[in-house]
Amino acid sequence: MSDRPIIIAGAGVGGLAAALALSDAGRYVVVLERAPALAEFGAGLQLGPNATRRLARWGALDRLRETATAPEAVDIRSSRDASVIATAPVGESEKRWGAPYFVSHRADLLSALVETATARPNIEIRLGCGLDGWQASADSVTVHVEGRPDIQGAALIGADGLRSRVRDGLGLATPDGPRYSGRTSWRSLLPASSVPADLLRPRTSLWLGAGAHLVLYPLRGASVLNAVAIVQDDWGDLNAPDFWSANGDAAFLASRFQGWAREARDVIETAPGWRRWPLYERKAVPTWSRGRVTVLGDAAHAMAPFLAQGAAQAIEDADALGRAVAAHPADEAAALDAYQRERVQRANKVQRASRIQGLVYHLSGPAGLARDMTMRAIGPAGMAKASDWIYRV
Ligand SMILES: Cc1cc2nc3c(=O)[nH]c(=O)nc-3n(C[C@H](O)[C@H](O)[C@H](O)COP(=O)(O)OP(=O)(O)OC[C@H]3O[C@@H](n4cnc5c(N)ncnc54)[C@H](O)[C@@H]3O)c2cc1C
């Protein structure tokens, strides 16, 4: 086994999860994060059992449990009259899929991962260290860090998100780069005092309407209601400001929810402010690794959020990477090849399914009515069965 560290670019969910998995494989890990601090930003994330099972294995789930909520169910509602079209019984997640289904504030998930990582002597997180390129040879990788000395590693993992420098350097597709999905995502956190008690029950509601949908769930002991609206939208400025700092025009958003049931419009109108973010995907590619360098998480497979699986797939990547490195302790290139062989097909399948789910969610007119009728017929058991392929893994 090499005594050089494995270097991870990016301390998001994917990079921190990879650090834990590689630490479990007995490796020394250096995580380079461009941001000067791990900011307390974000909003809610749904974490399916395929994610929480792995968090438990790394010892991060108990920390997350302190702040996360386990919803009883996901109610899919009609935008026309608020009626429940279908219910996904995610409250039975432990029984059916062997691990809980949580909703968490993204900052709480990051804190749980960081606390778990900093308790490990073989993980080092270096903030304010942006990767600025690398050179790989047959037996090592030299990573260039903005304004700092180079670092030598045994392998480089690009967990540097949607606009991954590592992916750009690997040249995995031509042309490549983030692809605008034609939709924007709007996020807000409403104080509990401003929403009806019914919306603070531990249930997620997913409202479907023409060209838009809305997801609501309480977070942090029901002290806030997390609201995410996704709408078809022309805006696709690649140089848009950071996800969490781009303010959205509430009047524009309200115009997209005209004609929706009163309960949904009330949430849109009472939210204290919205962040707007164009949704991008990365092209699905057949290979992620070249020699000692690979990508993971959004850098590998940024996907539409309609199955709430982006972070979960990053966590699955991290787990597969850790196992591959443990299985090939003396050959990092072989490990990265084994990692991509395990992961590419599944992640690309989830990415494709997320895109299709988006088309289904936003149907209008007779097609939307047909969707509602089909969902009503499926029932809770059918809804759970439809998720088996994602959650059972
Ligand atoms: C609206 C919306 C809702 C979503 N809901 C869900 C959900 O419910 N469930 C779910 O599982 N997923 C969800 N996702 C997806 C999820 O948020 C992402 O897939 C996940 O956060 C990706 O994690 P990551 O670590 O790959 O990338 P990121 O979180 O983007 O982290 C990348 C990190 O790399 C750092 N970085 C970037 N460049 C460099 C560099 N050159 N050098 C060093 N560091 C660098 C960045 O600062 C950042 O910290 C949602 C996404 C959206 C947009």
Q: If you had to describe this structure to a student in words, what would you say it looks like?
A:
This protein is of the alpha/beta class. It has a domain at 6-44 and 107-177 and 282-359: FAD/NAD(P)-binding domain. Strand 1 (6-9), helix 1 (13-24) and strand 2 form a beta-alpha-beta unit. The chain has helices at residues 13-24, 49-57, 61-65, 93-97, 106-118, 165-170, 250-256, 262-270, 298-301, 310-327, 332-361, 365-391; strands at residues 6-9, 29-33, 44-47, 74-78, 84-88, 102-105, 123-127, 131-136, 141-145, 148-153, 155-158, 179-191, 204-209, 212-219, 224-232, 275-281, 293-295. 37% of the residues lie in helices and 25% in strands. The protein has a 7-stranded mixed β-sheet with strand order 5-4-13-14-15-12-16. It has a 5-stranded parallel β-sheet with strand order 7-2-1-11-17. The site of flavin-adenine dinucleotide has 32 residues, from helix 1, strand 2, strand 3 and helix 10.
Total of helices: 12
How many beta strands in the DSSP annotation?
Answer: 17
**CATH topology-level name of the domain at 6-44 and 107-177 and 282-359:** FAD/NAD(P)-binding domain
Order of helices and strands: EHEEHHEEHEHEEEEEHEEEEHHEEHHHH
How would you write the strand order of the largest sheet?
5-4-13-14-15-12-16
**Biggest beta sheet summary:** 7 strands, mixed
Helix content: 25-40%
How large is the radius of gyration?
Answer: 21 Å
Morphology call: globular
Task: Write out the distinct hetero groups bound to the structure.
Answer: flavin-adenine dinucleotide
What amount of the residues lies in strands? 25-35%
Q: Give me the CATH architecture of the domain at 6-44 and 107-177 and 282-359, please.
A: 3-Layer(bba) Sandwich
Low-confidence stretches: none
CATH homologous superfamily caption of the domain at 6-44 and 107-177 and 282-359: FAD/NAD(P)-binding domain
pLDDT average, as an integer? 94
CATH class of the domain at 6-44 and 107-177 and 282-359: Alpha Beta
Given the helix and strand composition, which structural class is it? alpha/beta
Q: What is the CA–CA distance across the termini?
A: 29 Å
